[in-house]
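re: that chain from earlier
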Amino acid sequence: MIRVVIAEDQAMVLGALAALLEIDGDIDVVGRAQNGQEALAICQREKPDVLLTDVEMPLMTGLELAAAVRKTTRVIILTTFARGGYLRRALEAGASGYLLKDSPSEQLANAVRRVAQGGRVVDPELAAEAWSEPDPLTDRERQVLRMAGEGESSADIASSLNLSEGTVRNYLSEAINKLGAANRIEAARIAREKGWL
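^ sequence. v structure.
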């Protein structure tokens, strides 16, 4: 029996994924979470074979979650984001699979089985795109830019990350320059479109 935890912030999608996976008798959904922190706690308690997670979730992203459980649990990212930057970051975070939510439903259980056996499941076209344009942002620039893109002020970001406001402004300035953007909002939009946030 393959033990699976599902992390998805939309309740209806979460229920549908669990029902879809449990149709086959060899997969058991041992936990469901609607945010990344809840999923991490369930993974630590249940020790599943596979974690199926969305990218964008409250409290902890699917990529942060993948990095946190990579030593004990195989991870499949299931997302609407068909962007090479997200795939690249997912693989760097330790994911073994990257599926799009508009893929045929029969692929999901097969992907879980393959990843549970140590394989990888990645769309070949998306994989080629992932290495066509490298992500120019550092982890800290990405973190600061993500918060700025959500409307947080430099002071709020500095307080949250235990940095000075000047340091936050420097990170934002670097990110804006690297992305050729006019301001922090445009930089965040560009980075999000490319899958770098």
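The beta strands are 2-7, 27-33, 50-53, 74-79, 97-100, 121-122.
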